[in-house]
């Protein structure tokens, strides 16, 4: 009950930021405390990033919400996430994708196992966590309707835009110490929009920073 009241308060805060009801409903259905180490669970419904181990963090709820709103994930879509972390963002996108599927790539094997356990505990069945170099995307299941990148890239990566369906959308933070969040829409070319300054952990991989 304590977590439920905290979650309700968080939803009210996110609504004041202008987050869509579809995304708010998805966030309400995913218990964030299940995706956080036990010693941090008291802070699960504060609107801040939190450490999840392995030098990584879980994004602040408002950032998850903003990115989901920008992507406009709909029922039946195939979604790629780069940087699964503890699995929370992928779980929220899984709710939005409905009969679709989310493929979440994580380069740290132990963290990927943690994410799988959390997603299972939350009862989410349409998310697959794969250990791989996310900077290269996941060509096995391409093309994707939506791609979400939850780590900072040095540029808008061609390895990801190549795996995006025509009409598809990509959100990606670009920069090293602080980043600009970009929404990229693939047409015959690309439409690129800046969506504000953000701070993410660096993308690890061949086309990342590390």
Automatic annotation (TrEMBL):
Cell compartments where the protein resides: Cytoplasm
Superkingdom of origin: Archaea
Major place of residence: cytoplasm
EC number(s) recorded for this UniProt protein: 2.1.1.77
EC class of the enzyme, as a word: transferase
Reported function: Catalyzes the methyl esterification of L-isoaspartyl residues in peptides and proteins that result from spontaneous decomposition of normal L-aspartyl and L-asparaginyl residues. It plays a role in the repair and/or degradation of damaged proteins.
Protein name: Protein-L-isoaspartate O-methyltransferase
Organism (species): Candidatus Methanoperedens nitratireducens
Source lineage: Archaea, Methanobacteriati, Methanobacteriota, Stenosarchaea group, Methanomicrobia
The gene coding this protein: pcm
